[in-house]
Specification:
The protein is mainly β and about 120 residues long. Strands 2, 4, 5, 6, 9, 10 and 11 form a 7-stranded mixed beta sheet that branches. It has no helices and 11 strands.
């Protein structure tokens, strides 16, 4: 049974830092790719960063130089280190894992999302 749990959100001042963590369990093989998205009230969910297998990390222009996506030694955990946070970074952040199907383990391929964690940056 695949489960995705994320944490690390909070309230920080302008210029502060936070590190988000997201862990997927219930599967054996490494995910194909991992990513972070965010969504603020009244806006569509937007892509922030990803670290797809076989490629270098990619970032949205709005966070380049400030955010860093990384994985743990075991590829079941993805992090988002956020430095020099700005009020416009305020949003609910969601992690996403892309899994290949594994019929032996009863895993359906596709995207698996975390529940979201709130990040608030005060002016």
């Amino acid at each position: 049974q695949v489960q995705v749990v994320e944490s690390g959100g909070g309230l920080v001042q302008n210029g502060g830092s936070l590190r988000l963590s997201c862990t997927i369990s219930g599967m054996i093989a490494d995910p194909n790719g991992l990513a972070w998205y965010r969504q603020s009230p009244g806006n569509k969910r937007e892509w922030v960063a990803d670290i797809t297998s076989g490629s270098t990390p990619m970032y949205a222009d709005s966070v380049k130089g400030r955010f860093t996506i990384s994985t743990g030694n075991a590829k079941n955990t993805v992090y988002l280190q956020m430095n020099n946070l700005k009020p416009q970074d305020t949003a609910v952040y969601y992690c996403k894992f892309n899994l290949r199907p594994d019929t032996a383990m009863g895993i359906i391929g596709g995207d698996y999302w975390g529940q979201g964690t709130q990040v608030t940056v005060s002016s």
